[in-house]
Amino acid sequence: MSDLSCMSFNVLAYDTHHSGYEPAADRFPYVVKTIDKYAPDLIGVQEACEKGSSGDKVSADFDWPGELTAAMKERGYGASVLRDQPGFKREMQSIACGLIIFYKADRFELTESGAFEYPHDTVRYFQWVKLTDKKFDRRIVFTNTHFSIHQKVAGKFSGEAGHAACAVEAIKLCNFWYNNCDANTALFATGDYNSDPTTLAQKLLASSVFKPSRNVAKIFDESNSVNFARREHTIDFCYVNPDATTVDEYLVARDHFPSASDCRLAGYASDHRAIMTYVSYNELKEVENNE
After folding, report:
1. Mean pLDDT of the chain
2. What is d(CA 248, CA 237) in angstroms, rounded to the nearest whole number?
3. I want to staple 219 with a disulfide (CB 3.0 to 4.6 A). Which of 66, 87, 113, 249 is the partner?
4. pLDDT the model gives residue 175
5. What is the 3-state secondary structure (H, E, C) of the chain?
6. Is 4-281 CATH 3.40.50.300?
7. Residue % of the chain over a pLDDT of 70
8. What is the phi/psi pair of residue 240, to 5°?
9. What CA dihedral angle connects 71, 75, 80 and 82, to 10 degrees?
10. pLDDT per residue over 145-186, tens digit each?
11. Rounded Cα–Cα distance for residues 21 and 225 (Å)
12. Would the pTM count as exceeding 0.70?
C-alpha cells in the first residue's frame, strides 16, 4: 500500500457545448464524483476559474473556485487558491488562472504558500505550497501550473511561440523545484503543461533530477490524459523527486457518468482526464548543510 496519493485534474472552465461537452454547472457533479472515487490525499486543479473572469470562453454562470472549495471543505480538504494570493491581478484572469491546491486538512500542515507570475504572460502562473505530512513527519513541496498554449507574435497567435513560452516556464518552474527540494523533500508538481513529451519544455523538465511520475512508476497506465474528439495525447503531468519518493503506480481516470444531455460527449467531467500518482516515501538520507 502506498503512503500518499496525488491527483492532477484540469476541470475545463468554460462552456463547450459546441465541441460536445456539457456546460460547467452540469459537469461539476462529475468532477466531484471523480475526486470522491479516487480520494487523493493531495490535488492540483487547473481551470477552476472565477465566475465572470475575463475571456470570452470562461463560463459566465458558474463559480468554479467557490463551488469546488466548498465541496472539498465538506470532504475535509484545506485549500490554497491562486486568486487569494497577495498581488494576484484579479482583473487579468483567464482560464489559466484557475489554479487550486487541495490537501487533507487533518493530515497536512500548511507552512507556506505563494505564487509566481511568469514574466512573459500576465495570466500564466505557478502556485506553490509547502506542507508537513504529520502522518510520516515528512516535508512536501507542491506546485501547480497551467503552461502557455499560444503567444502573440506581430499581432498574431503562434503555436510555435507558445512552445517557446512553455520552455521558458519550464526553466522557471524547474529552478524553483531545485531551490526548494533537497533529497528528503517530496515533490508533487501537478499541471496542465500544454506540452507533450516530445516538446522542448518536457525534455528540459525531464532532464533534471525530477521526473514525471508516469516515467518512473512501477505500475504504468499507458492511457493519454487528454481526450479530444479527434485526437488524444498527454499534456498533464505530476513531477516527483525520485530521491524522496518511489512511485508505486501511475493511473489515468477514464470515468464516464450517466447523463440525459444531448451533447456528443455528455457524461465526461472534462476534456482532460484526471491523473493519479501513488508514492511511498524513501528512507531519509543524510543531507549536507550548505548554510
Report:
1. 89
2. 16
3. 249
4. 97
5. CCCEEEEEEECCCCCCHHHCCCCHHHHHHHHHHHHHHHCCCEEEEECCCCCCCCCCCCCCCCCHHHHHHHHHHHCCEEEEEHHHCCCCCHHHCCHHHCCEEEEECCCEEEEEEEEEECCCCCCCEEEEEEEEECCCCEEEEEEEEECCCCEEECCEEEHHHHHHHHHHHHHHHHHHHHHHCCCCCEEEEEEECCCCCCCHHHHHHHCCCCEEHHHHCCEECCCCCEECCCCEECCEEEEECCCCEEEEEEEECCCCCCCCCCCCCCCCCCCECCEEEEEEECCCCCCCCCC
6. no
7. 86
8. -130, 170
9. -20
10. 999 886 666 666 666 877 889 999 999 999 999 999 999 999
11. 16
12. yes
CB proximity list for 204: less than 8 A, separation 6 or greater: 167, 170, 171, 174
pLDDT at 286: 87
- Per-domain residue ranges of the chain: 4-281
How much is the pLDDT for 229?
A: 47
Q: Tell me the CA end-to-end span of the chain in Å, nearest whole number.
A: 37
Q: Which residues pair with 247 in a beta bridge?
A: 279
Three cell numbers, residue 14: 468554460
Do the beta carbons of residue 8 and residue 34 sit within 8 Å?
Answer: no
Please name the residues in contact with 198: beta carbons below 8 A apart, sequence gap of 6 or more.
Answer: none
Mean pLDDT confidence for 241-265: 95
Cα–Cα separations (whole angstroms), residue 234 to 108, 199, 275, 288: 29, 11, 10, 37
| pLDDT of 288 strictly over 90 | no
For residues 212 and 238, the answer to whether their CB atoms sit within 8 Å is yes
| Lowest-confidence segment of 13-22, 117-126, 267-276 by average pLDDT | 13-22
